[in-house]
Amino acid sequence: MSKMKIYLPITKSCTIDWDFMETLITAEARLAIRDVIAWRDKVIEKTKGVVASE
Questions:
Q1: Model confidence pLDDT, tens digit, residues 1-54
Q2: Which one of 17, 30, 42, 49 is CB 3.0 to 4.6 Å from 9, fit for a cystine?
């Protein structure tokens, strides 16, 4: 097994900054959801165009 180093954010008191990590993960999740919604909206618009042209 290879050895890996994982760097985590720390506070001024040198403990893991769980609040920062939670905020970051929440932000990343929101961005992913936003991208999925944008993709879905494009699919819906293209589908409407196909249906309207029939």
A1: 689 999 999 999 999 999 999 999 999 999 999 999 999 999 999 999 999 887
A2: 17
The beta-carbon contacts of 30-37 under 8 Å, at least 24 apart in sequence, are none
pTM above 0.85?
Answer: no
**CB of 17 closer than 8 Å to CB of 8:** yes
CB distance 21 to 9 below 8 Å: yes
Computed on alpha carbons and rounded to an integer, the radius of gyration of the chain in Å comes to 21
Burial of 17 (0-12, 13-18, 19+ CB in 10 A): middle
